[in-house]
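Section 5: illustrative case.
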């Protein structure tokens, strides 16, 4: 247990003290899966670029995978609500991602790369709602913001460490070294899953029902689609769609533009972008969890949406390798906040329906539409007009998200209530 103690949460509430080992392994799981879930992430673009792929062709193949993941996210969220084998689901998804990426290293034929991206995206789509269900089942609604903050902090710590190791190894051995690091993280994630005790998971609570409530009633099953939560969930999903339309391809494009403009080592530079962002995200996620308990999710969501246009403008107008610092720190602000806000807001909007993870899957489906289109959108603008205009085009998308959120909060009382501090409701 001594090795696990590094990941143990500090000062757990009395009602969670008996679950210390499971919550510790949940933190370790978030740390390890951070690298596995994203696959090669921005390193994939660098790898394909080194094999003669153009920015738009890289964008297209990423879009194919993103669309496949988008199509199954909501059904996989429903599966996360229904299944009592959440640990097995995560283990199979992790193994699928690593196997798909191994195929890409063996052959870079467009059909094989596209197929592998589809497999990776489908497996990755299962992870967020399943981890959300595990977290809610272990911590409960009352302690969810704090646990989400810990999850995100360890998630970003895992990403940062993997990027540093991948960058160092990639400097000498290229992008395949990043794959070796990811494979090690896969083994660590399987160990963490084994350490989460099944008896500590309340599967009714994990889907948004009262503890040990059993199965959802017919009225609860219909609540997501026909109840007052339906439109707020859709609006939150649209906000996430436009945010990720601008956000998803900005980091890969930053790495590609640096390679094209400044003739630097692509793997090392991309690793640096990830490390800066992940270091910022750790601090922001912990801060966001504390602020969510006191001020609610609303102020955090506004901050995340405002950070992205500023990030895109800096990348678009400051043509210098050092633009990495403010650009990726702002990435840390947006991603660190939304990692806490998105599952937390879904849990508040759908509390009592029995479909928290399905609702999160719906939100992430819309988010996936934006993320998958981001690669083609940014890649096409970069191919036609250059990297500077591409960053500005990406920066325009979250401005639409700001408008949608402003209109929705004014017209939807349930969303307005969910964004407020818990004590106000």
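Designed sequence:
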């Amino acid at each position: 247990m001594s090795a696990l103690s590094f990941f143990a949460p500090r000062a757990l509430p009395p009602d969670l003290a008996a679950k210390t080992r499971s919550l510790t392994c949940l933190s370790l799981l978030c740390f390890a899966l951070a690298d596995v879930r994203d696959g090669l992430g921005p390193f994939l673009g660098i790898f394909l670029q080194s094999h003669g792929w153009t920015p738009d062709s890289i964008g297209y193949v990423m879009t194919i995978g993103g669309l496949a993941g988008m199509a199954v996210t909501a059904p996989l969220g429903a599966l996360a609500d229904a299944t009592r084998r959440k640990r097995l689901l995560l283990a199979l998804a992790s193994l699928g991602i690593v196997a798909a990426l191994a195929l890409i290293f063996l052959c870079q034929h467009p059909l094989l790369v596209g197929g592998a991206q589809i497999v990776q995206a489908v497996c990755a789509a299962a992870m967020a709602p399943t981890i959300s269900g595990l977290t809610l089942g272990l911590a409960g609604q009352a302690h969810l913001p704090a646990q989400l903050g810990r999850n995100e902090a360890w998630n970003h710590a895992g990403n940062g460490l993997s990027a540093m190791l991948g960058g160092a190894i990639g400097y000498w051995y290229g992008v395949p070294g990043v794959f070796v690091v990811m494979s090690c993280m896969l083994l660590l994630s399987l160990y963490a899953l084994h350490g989460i005790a099944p008896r500590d998971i309340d599967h009714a609570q994990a889907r948004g029902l009262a503890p040990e409530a059993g199965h959802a009633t017919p009225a609860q099953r219909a609540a997501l689609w026909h109840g007052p939560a339906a439109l707020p969930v859709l609006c939150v999903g649209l906000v996430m769609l436009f945010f990720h339309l601008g956000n998803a391809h900005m980091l890969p494009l930053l790495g590609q533009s640096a390679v094209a403009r400044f003739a630097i080592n692509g793997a090392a530079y991309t690793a640096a972008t990830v490390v800066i962002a992940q270091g910022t995200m750790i601090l922001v996620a912990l801060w966001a969890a504390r602020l969510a308990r006191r001020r609610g999710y609303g102020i955090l969501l506004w901050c995340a949406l405002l950070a992205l246009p500023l990030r895109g403008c800096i990348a678009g107008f400051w043509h210098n390798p050092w633009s990495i610092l403010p650009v990726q720190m702002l990435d840390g602000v947006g991603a660190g906040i939304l990692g806490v806000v998105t599952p937390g807001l879904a849990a508040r909007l759908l509390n009592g329906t029995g479909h928290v993870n399905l609702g999160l899957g719906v939100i992430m489906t819309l988010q996936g539409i934006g993320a998958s289109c981001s690669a083609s959108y940014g890649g096409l603008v970069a191919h036609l007009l250059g990297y500077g205009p591409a960053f500005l085009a990406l920066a325009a998308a979250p401005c639409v998200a700001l408008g949608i959120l402003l209109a929705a909060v004014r017209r939807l009382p349930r969303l307005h209530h969910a964004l407020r501090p818990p004590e106000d409701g």
